[in-house]
Design a protein that fits this description.
There is one protein chain. The strands form 4 sheets. Strands 1, 2, 3, 4, 5 and 6 form a 6-stranded antiparallel beta sheet that branches. Helix 10 packs antiparallel against helix 11, helix 11 runs antiparallel to helix 12 and helix 12 runs parallel beside helix 13. This protein has 565 residues and is α+β, with helices and mostly antiparallel strands. It contains 14 helices and 20 strands. The longest helix is centred in the N-terminal third of the chain and has 64 residues.
């Protein structure tokens, strides 16, 4: 009978409405948690997609910018091979450069190694020209003999923010004779950025190697030439992936930066952080709405179900009171299936109690019968052991070991509710006390023996194991025992014990062990046995009739009751 420890307080009784409300919460909350987890995962996927798109846009913009720089390089490299430059006809080259120049916001310039401008398409040929405003990039071209692209600077003629694409022009000795430049207004790159069509919230830009804004897809005139905040520029230089940041306007953004493959520039794409976090905010709002709806709906349904359950439970309570008074209970049909089952169960309670009483009486008689059988077995064992013992101490030693062997079999029967035991478990149980499991090979199909076979085969196995440990294969480290069995077509099982690599322990023919294996066990099972002493060791064979096989197992999930056939 269940109760509560003394001194402790029983839980305060609650109304069914309370328990139903808690039950509704227990059902709803896991669903809500799962829903929230799912929404959170979906939000994470959406945010991941936004981050991938930010990076993809940055890479697309880099491709467009580098494409324009490649076009400029191809034009310059083509002009650098012109015959006018080789002959020094700069006037003719000026006319050729004007014709070759396609972008409206660009100019072609030719300077010598002293940075003096010789040709500028923004001026007529022969006009006075100032030195180049970007001698650093020109010197890199002279030093390396390779094309270079500058950072942002202010043009010497138009005074606008510009950048240069510069290539060397070599003389016959492969020395740099001129530096050929295509000078672009920064606004040209801004126009290129607008070719990538994006929503207004998206912003793309180009920053030079010093962190100066070169171009933006929005508000170019307002921000060109302004430096990035130092923290943002450090993130720009070192970030390998998408990262949150604060832009030059002080707004929180999600930003991706890639390096141009042609110029020492950084190409970026940004989107407001609020837009990137929108999936999370949306999922939180939806989760809050789900919680509110679940609480309201759960409370309402709990109230309705309480009303529907109260009357059937009252009827079940009255039926329980009738059972307590010993009166007959008639099952009633209500709207609640569980209450109907309860009243039907109560109606059967008195009948079942009487049946249990009769069953208890039967079990007591069966227990008395089994106890008498066990006492008869012990008595016979004691008599046989006494006849073979010369002293009381010898009797006690032999009898104690045989009682232990009997106990091994009884333990197996007890685990199977006295229905029998598996033959492999019986063999292992009688070898285990002698530490012989690792030195024994035990093989055979799964066979379930009845109680008679378990007790008698157990006697024989105990005698065999005892004899082997004292005089036979188990008395030496190299000795081993093989126990195998197989089933015949008629349902009988053939059991074989054989010893190998040990001394031959010949038992006295009038000994108790010899009688157990050759007379007592075969007689008890109405079967036959054979005991041989071979050069390898003891060999004992026993036929266990099908009548003592309770059931066999073809597989672990396929039980076949042999007695049912």
């Amino acid at each position: 009978m269940m109760g509560f420890p003394s001194g402790s307080l029983a839980p305060r009784p609650q109304r069914i409405r309370t328990y139903l409300t808690l039950f509704a919460l227990a059902l709803v909350l896991p669903v809500l948690a799962l829903s929230f987890f799912g929404l959170n995962q979906m939000a994470a996927i959406e945010q991941s997609q936004i981050e991938r798109r930010v990076m993809q846009i940055a890479q697309n913009v880099r491709f467009v910018v580098d494409r324009e720089l490649d076009r400029a390089l191809v034009t310059l490299e083509t002009l650098a091979t012109s015959s006018e430059l080789r002959t020094g006809d700069l006037g003719a080259f000026h006319r050729q450069a004007v014709l070759a120049l396609k972008p409206a916001k660009a100019a072609i310039v030719l300077i010598d190694p002293s940075y003096r401008q010789l040709v500028d398409t923004l001026k007529d040929y022969g006009a006075e020209l100032p030195p180049t405003a970007d001698p650093v990039t020109a010197q890199r071209v002279i030093d390396t003999g390779k094309a270079q692209i500058s950072d942002l600077f202010k043009g010497s003629i138009n005074g606008l923010p510009v950048f240069n694409v510069e290539v060397p022009v070599f003389d016959d000795q492969k020395r740099v004779r001129y530096v050929l430049i295509m000078s672009f207004q920064a606004a040209y790159i801004a126009d290129v950025l607008t070719e990538v069509k994006l929503d207004p919230m998206w912003l793309t830009g180009v920053t030079d190697s010093h962190g100066i804004i070169l171009a933006r897809s929005q508000k170019q005139d307002e921000y060109v030439g302004r430096p990035l905040p130092s923290e943002l520029f450090e993130q720009t230089k070192h970030a390998d992936n998408v990262y949150p940041a604060t832009n030059i306007a002080g707004e929180r953004i999600l930003r991706a930066t890639v390096r141009s493959e042609r110029a020492p520039w950084f190409v970026s794409a940004t989107v407001p952080l609020s837009h990137a976090q929108e999936p999370y905010n949306r999922s939180l709002s939806f989760a809050a709405l789900l919680v509110a709806m679940a609480l309201i709906l759960g409370g309402a349904l709990a109230y309705i179900f309480v009303r529907l359950m109260a009357l059937p439970l009252d009827a079940a309570t009255r039926a329980a009171a009738l059972v307590g008074r010993g009166e007959d209970v008639h099952a009633a049909q209500t709207s609640l299936v569980e209450a109907n089952v309860l009243t039907e169960t109560l109606a059967k309670a008195s009948k079942e109690l009487n049946e249990r009483a009769r069953h208890t009486d039967f079990l007591m008689r069966e227990l008395a019968h089994r106890a008498k059988n066990q006492l008869a077995v012990v008595k016979g064992m004691a008599l046989q052991t006494a006849r073979q013992s010369a002293t009381v101490d010898e009797f006690i030693g032999h009898f104690d070991r045989r009682i232990q062997g009997l106990a091994q079999s009884q333990d197996l029967l007890l685990r199977q509710n006295w229905r029998g035991a598996w033959i492999q478990e019986l063999v292992r149980a009688h070898l285990e006390p002698f530490g012989a499991e690792n030195r024994a090979r035990i093989e055979g199909p799964d066979v379930f023996l009845d109680t008679t076979a378990v007790q008698n085969v157990g006697f024989a196995l105990h005698e065999l194991a005892t004899n082997a440990s004292k005089y036979g294969a188990l008395s030496k480290d190299e000795g081993r025992v093989v126990v195998i069995w197989r089933q015949a077509q008629d349902g009988a099982t053939y059991l074989e014990w054989s010893e190998h690599d040990g001394p031959v322990a010949r038992q006295a023919r009038d000994g108790f062990g010899h009688r157990v294996m050759t007379e007592l066990v075969p007689r008890a099972l109405n079967s036959s046995s054979k005991l041989d002493f071979t050069p390898q060791g003891v060999r004992w064979e026993l036929t266990i009739p099908a009548a003592h096989i309770v059931r066999t197992i073809r597989s672990h999930h396929d039980l076949v009751d042999a007695t049912a056939e």
